[in-house]
Amino acid sequence: MKRILFISLAVVLALSVGLVGCTEPPEPTIVIGASRPLTGWMAVIGDGAFRPIYETYVAELNKVGGISVGGTKFEVELDIRDDKSDVDEMVSNTEDLIDDIADGKVHFLFGPGSTAFLEAQAPICSEAHVVQMTAEGGATTLIPELDEYDYSFINLSFSDWYQLPILAKMLADEGATTAYVAWINDAHGLEYLGAAAESFGAEGISIVGNYSLVAPPGVVDPAPVILAANATGADVFCCFAYPDQNMPVTGAAIGMAYNPNAFVMGPTANFGWYAPAFDWAVNGVTCFATANEKTSDEMEDLYDLIEIEYEYGFGFLDWWGFPCYWAAMEMWQKCAEEVGSVDGDGNYVIDQDDYRDYLCDNKFTTVFGETWYVDGHDLTWPVPDGTGALMNYECHTGEIGQWQDNTVEIVGYDGIEGDFPNYVVTANFTYPKAAWVETPPE
Question: Which domain holds residue 246?
Answer without folding.
Answer: 163-296+398-419
